[in-house]
Every structure is written in C-alpha cells, then in structure tokens.
Design brief:
By secondary structure, this protein is α/β, with parallel strands linked by helices. The chain is built from ten helices and eight strands.
C-alpha cells in the first residue's frame, strides 16, 4: 500500500462532471498509485474510467494501482456487503479492488437512500453488528473481490471488537482516520502500530471550510506559522510539510485536490526529510480538535468519537 495516496472525495452538488476523471488521470501521470474512493462519493464511474484509460495507454498496469473502496453505512447487514462491493466493481469496471473498508462503524437503515431520514428530518439508524458485517467482508476477500479488508473511523473499542472476534479469519489491515498536525492521534496511532494496522490519514491538510460538516472552530492548518517557517527552510509549502510529517511517521495520506498544480505539488515530498526536532515541534501543534466531527450522527450507539481514542 503506497503511503502517498490520492483522495477523490467530492461534493456531488458542487463538483462539475468530469473533474474527478481528469484529476485521477493527472494524479496517475504525476506518480500516484494509491487511489482512495467510495461509492458514496458518487464519482467512482469517473475514477474507474481514468484508471482504465491509463492502463489502456500503457502508463500503468492494473497491479500498479492500489484502489481503496468503501462500504457505506446503509449496506452493513451481511447480505448487503458483497452486493455493495460488486456495485463498486461494476461502476469502476474493474475485477477487484485492492482494499475494501467499512467506512464508518455506524449502520443506517438499509435501502437505496444513502442518508435515510424520517418525516422529522432525523437520521434513521439501524442495529449495528460490526462482527457480522466483518464476516461478510472476510467472505469478499475469500471470493477474490478485494485483495485486503480494513476499516475507517473505528476507535480502539471497535477495533478490539473485530480483533477479538471468535473465528476471525482476516484482520483489518488498515484504519483510515483523521490525522494531521492539529490532530495527531498519538494514542490510536500507537495502538494500531502494536496491532500492525496501517493508519491512513484523511484530511491530512485540514479540510474545506464547509460549515455543513466541518468544525470551523479549528483554524486553517495551512496558515500555521510553524509549518510555513519549516517550509521556507526546505523551499516547500506548508501543505508539503504537513504531508511529509505524516508519511515520515509511517502514516499514509490521501490529500484531495482537483487542481493539477496542487496534485503535483502534494506528491513532491520525497526529496527531503524533517529532522527529529522538527517532527517533535510539529507534534507539539496537536490541539486534539477534529475538523470532521460528524456531529449530525453523535446520537448513534456506535458513534466513534465519544471515546478518548
């Protein structure tokens, strides 16, 4: 799994058609091989088309690409897991994904609506059985539909639920979580290291300032004075310093950008190393504040962020 990945999340309401397709093609040309996507991003058809075209051009082989897809909350019942992955494969027009992860540990009411709500506008949850969902994930790996399986946004208790499951066949290889200099996740990171679970950091540059889902009390990461000043030393941007910080700690990153210059810039982090003192100083920026709190679901029994980690 390449530690440097390319994120493809896009708000389908505001993202022009074709932008995901063009961006993934640019990313592959630049050198990205780990592509992070999801059914719920509504653009897997574009991502798949870009990957297939680059394979057809001879730029890459299928085995060079590491694609991560995700199981959405409305598909947690075991009988829905494989059909959901098959839907992703059909949309991508690929035979397998390299990693398939449970996107969130919270089940929603099954059905065609990704964000089911009742007449009062309240989200409709569903009984969550993470172990049963995991067994269906294991069956997808055994069937060759995915090379590996993992989780996302799981806290320690939820990871232990899976790891301690009687008859466990396949351990989660990764946990995708928010991770950046303002939210360094030291305890969860250490726990995952002990359990040999790779951590993939989403929002490694902070996030867009979309108040519908982002905690705006956290200041913009890329305006941080320390990151800017370390950047000057290496002739790098604050974004490149933030990405290098995670990768140097063994944390994967999946920055998202639809700007070709930024896509290129984000990848240029392998020609320098931060010193131990610089890593410690950046760790010291930790504010324990999430950008992505998902407060709209904080009354779900399996909401993962009530626990310390």
């Amino acid at each position: 799994m390449p530690l440097m990945g390319f994120g493809t999340y896009a708000d389908p309401r505001t993202t022009p058609k074709g932008l995901g397709y063009e961006s993934v093609k640019v990313a592959i040309d630049v050198g990205y091989r780990h592509i992070d996507g999801a059914l719920v991003y509504f653009n897997e058809h574009e991502v798949g088309q870009a990957i297939r075209e680059k394979i057809a051009e001879g730029k890459v082989k299928r085995e060079d690409i590491f694609y991560c897809g995700k199981l959405w909350n409305t598909f947690h019942p075991p009988e829905l897991v494989r059909p959901s992955l098959e839907r992703t494969l059909k949309t991508l027009q690929l035979d397998y994904v390299d990693l398939y992860v449970v996107e969130l540990p919270m089940a929603f009411k099954p059905g065609d609506t990704f964000y089911p709500k009742d007449d009062n506008g309240k989200h409709i949850f569903h009984k969550t059985d993470l172990c049963a969902t995991w067994e269906a994930m294991e069956a997808c790996k055994d069937a060759g539909l995915t090379k590996s399986i993992g989780v996302s946004n799981f806290n320690r208790r939820q990871l232990e639920l899976i790891l301690n499951k009687p008859g466990l066949k396949h351990r989660p290889v990764s946990n995708q979580i928010e991770c950046h200099p303002y939210f360094t996740q030291p305890k969860l990171l250490e726990y995952c290291r002990q359990k040999e679970i790779v951590v993939i950091g989403y929002s490694p540059l902070g996030t867009s300032r979309d108040e519908s889902w982002v905690n705006l009390t956290c200041p913009p990461l890329l305006k941080d004075d320390l990151l800017i000043s370390i950047g000057k030393k290496y002739k790098k941007t604050a974004a490149q310093i933030a990405l290098r910080f995670n990768v140097q700690r063994g944390v994967g990153v999946i920055p998202k950008s639809f700007n070709p210059d930024r896509i290129k810039e984000n990848f240029q982090i392998f020609d320098f190393s931060l010193t131990e003192d610089e890593l410690k100083a950046i760790e010291g920026l930790n504010r324990n504040i999430r950008f992505v709190e998902l407060k709209m679901w904080d009354d779900h029994p399996e909401y993962p962020f009530h626990d310390e980690y």
